[in-house]
Amino acid sequence: MTSLTKEKSLLNKIQETLKSLNLPVYYGLSTHDENLDWNYFVFRRKSLGKAGTSRHDFRYSYLIYIIMENYIEEGFDTKVINAIEKNTKLKLADTEHIYDYIVKKNTDQVCEVLTLEFTKFVKGCAISE
To answer: By the 8 A CB rule, do 46 and 61 touch?
Structure first.
């Protein structure tokens, strides 16, 4: 299996895990219908960088956005974190995860957005051509 196939498989695992939480899931950018409830996930790759002391080791970073009308229920954030870590082997990044707020277009409805960053370390010898 090539590293590209493994990567695609990981993206599929992220998508399946998020779908299991019973909300719509979008990759990259939201194509969400503005007339529907604004409770959904968006996930994407963030970056690829060198990791560790070996020039052959890499760190992949992924972002998951939880978007909810009004607010994200208490405990839902940790439910998402636990599900992602369990089902994908990604680890929550050692950084602050930011809550942000947006207003739905043409309304006065506030939505809360939480951005979660996850990482995966890959040894250079594990990457095949």
So the answer is: yes
